[in-house]
Design goal:
It contains 13 helices and 13 strands. It has 436 residues and is α/β, with parallel strands linked by helices. It folds into five domains: 85 residues, Nucleic acid-binding proteins (OB fold (Dihydrolipoamide Acetyltransferase, E2P), Beta Barrel), CATH 2.40.50; 153 residues, Succinyl-CoA synthetase domains (Rossmann fold, 3-Layer(aba) Sandwich); 36 residues; 46 residues; 62 residues, no CATH class. The strands form three sheets. Strands 1-2-3-5-4 form a five-stranded mixed beta barrel. A hairpin with a 6-residue loop joins strand 2 and strand 3. Helix 5 runs parallel beside helix 9 and helix 6 runs parallel beside helix 7. The protein starts with 9 loop residues before the first helix and ends in a 17-residue tail after the last strand.
C-alpha cells in the first residue's frame, strides 16, 4: 500500500521528489506541486464535463482574427459568463448576432492550463428573440415614434454661434475634456456651463434630469450637450429612459446627444435636436471654426470688392458713352431746330384764336339782334302799353276789365295805375277815358 505521508528517511531527504511529479492531492508544505501540474489536473477535471445549452443576452461581442470573445448575461439576474466562439464554429452560424440579442447557445467548459483561464467554448448559437431590455426599448421606441417625438420637423435648429454652451457629462471624464478642447480650438472665446452627473447606473437618470432642468432654466445657455464616451448597451440604458427622453423633447433649448455609441443607438439620439457620433463631433458641430469663418469672411469681402469694382467700371463706361453722344456734347443743337417750329406753331395758334373770336362775335351780334326783335320792349318803345290785372294777368279782351277794374299799365318807361270805365268804341272814345 502506498503511503501519502512524507518520507522522513535520510535517503528521501537526500533525494527530493520533483514538484512536477507530485499530484495536487499528495502535495504538502514540504512537497508542493507545481502550477502546471495543478492546472493540468484542473484541465483534466473540466474536460470530463459535458456540453450544456444555456439561454442569455449577449452583452459583449469582440471579434479578433475571425474568432469572437464575448459575454453572456442571465435574463433574470446579474450572473455573467465569458465565452469564446472560434472562427470554425462561427462559420456554421447563419444568424447575424450582435450585442443585445437574446440567444440560446451550446457551450462546453474549458480551462486553459497554461494561462489558468476558465471560459466556455461555443459550438452552436442561435437567436431566441431580442433581449428583454432591447425588446422593451424597441416597444418604447415605436410608441415615441407614433407620438411624433422623433419627427424631424419638431427638431430645433442650433444657433450659429452660441454665447454659452451647457454641458452635461461625467466629472473628470474624457468626454468633458474632448468637448472643451475641440470647442476651444475652433473658437477660443467659447464659454461653457458644465454640470456633472452620473452617466451610468441608478443615479444616471435623476442626475441628468436635474442637470437638464438647471441648464434649461439658465437664460444664457443657447444649446445643451449631453456627452458620454460610449460604452456597452448595459451601461447606456439610462440614455433610453422614458423620463429623460420626454424631458429632452419638452426642452425649449436645443439639445445635442453625444453618447458616442454607434452600434445600438439609445433613444436619446432619436429625440435630440442633433445627434453627434462622439463628444468631439459634438464640439465641431456646435461651435464654428474661427479660421474657417475668417476665411469665409475674407472670401466674401473679396467677392464683394470684385463685384463693386466691376459694377463701378461698367457704370462709368456707360456714363462716358452717354456723354460722348452729340446731343450731350452740344445740347443746344437739339433745341435750335425746334425754335422755328415753336414760333410757327405760336403764330398759327394766335391766328386761329383771332378767327374764332371774330366769328363768335358776329354770331353773338346776330343773336342779340334776333333777341331784340322778339323782345316786348321794342313794341313798348313804339308807344304801345300792356295792361295787367291786379293778379298780373295781361288784359287781352275788354271784357276782362269791366267798369271799375283796377289796372296797371306798363309803358316803355315805367308803369301807371288806371281804373277801367268799361268797353268803349274805337271810333268815339268816352270823354276822359283811357285808350287801351
Amino acid at each position: 500500500m502506498t503511503s501519502f505521508l512524507p518520507d522522513t528517511s535520510a535517503d528521501a531527504a537526500a533525494a527530493p521528489v520533483p514538484s512536477d511529479s507530485i499530484h495536487p492531492r499528495d502535495s504538502s508544505s514540504d512537497g508542493p506541486t507545481s502550477v502546471s501540474r495543478l492546472n493540468e489536473t484542473i484541465h483534466g477535471f473540466v474536460q470530463k464535463w459535458g456540453s450544456v445549452w444555456v439561454e442569455g443576452e449577449i452583452t459583449s461581442w469582440n471579434v479578433r482574427g475571425g474568432s469572437v470573445y464575448g459575454r453572456l448575461k442571465d435574463l433574470s439576474g446579474d450572473s455573467v459568463l465569458s465565452f469564446r466562439l472560434w472562427s470554425s464554429a462561427r462559420a456554421r452560424i447563419t444568424d447575424d448576432l450582435t450585442v443585445g440579442d437574446r440567444v440560446v447557445t451550446c457551450v462546453k467548459p474549458d480551462y486553459y492550463a497554461k494561462g489558468g483561464d476558465f471560459s466556455f467554448v461555443v459550438s452552436q448559437m442561435r437567436h431566441d428573440g431580442l433581449g428583454a431590455q432591447l425588446e422593451r426599448l424597441e416597444r418604447l421606441r415605436a410608441q415615441l415614434r407614433t407620438e411624433g417625438l422623433f419627427d424631424p420637423t419638431r427638431k430645433r435648429p442650433l444657433p450659429f454661434l452660441p454665447h454659452c454652451i451647457g454641458l452635461i457629462t461625467g466629472e473628470l471624464s474624457d468626454a468633458e475634456r474632448d468637448v472643451h478642447r475641440n470647442a476651444e480650438l475652433r473658437w477660443p472665446q467659447v464659454r461653457f456651463r458644465t454640470v456633472h452627473a452620473a452617466v451610468q447606473g441608478d443615479r444616471c437618470v435623476p442626475e441628468i434630469l436635474a442637470a437638464l432642468a438647471q441648464l434649461e432654466a439658465d437664460p444664457e445657455v443657447d444649446v445643451i450637450i449631453i456627452a458620454r464616451g460610449g460604452g456597452d448597451p448595459q451601461t447606456l440604458l439610462g440614455f433610453s429612459d422614458e423620463r429623460l427622453v420626454r424631458a429632452v423633447a419638452a426642452a425649449s433649448t436645443p439639445v445635442v446627444s453625444a453618447i458616442g455609441h454607434e452600434n445600438d443607438r439609445p433613444l436619446l439620439d432619436d429625440v435630440a435636436d442633433l445627434r453627434a457620433s462622439t463628444p468631439t463631433d459634438a464640439a465641431k458641430r456646435v461651435v464654428p471654426d474661427v479660421g474657417e469663418q475668417r476665411a469665409l469672411v475674407a472670401q466674401l469681402r473679396s467677392r464683394l470688392s470684385t463685384r463693386l469694382t466691376t459694377r463701378i467700371a461698367h457704370d462709368a463706361a456707360q456714363l462716358e458713352q452717354l456723354r460722348s453722344r452729340p446731343v450731350l456734347r452740344d445740347p443746344e443743337s437739339l433745341l435750335i431746330p425746334r425754335t422755328h417750329d415753336l414760333m410757327l406753331l405760336a403764330a398759327r395758334g394766335r391766328d386761329t384764336v383771332d378767327r374764332q373770336l371774330q366769328s363768335q362775335s358776329r354770331h353773338v351780334a346776330e343773336l342779340r339782334a334776333s333777341l331784340r326783335a322778339l323782345s316786348p320792349a321794342s313794341t313798348l318803345a313804339r308807344g304801345y302799353a300792356i295792361a295787367h290785372l291786379h293778379d298780373g294777368t295781361i288784359v287781352r279782351d275788354a271784357a276782362q276789365a269791366p267798369t271799375g277794374t283796377l289796372l296797371t299799365v306798363t309803358v316803355d318807361r315805367g308803369s301807371v295805375a288806371a281804373v277801367s270805365e268799361g268797353e268803349v268804341s274805337e271810333s268815339a272814345p268816352a270823354e276822359g277815358g283811357t285808350k287801351l
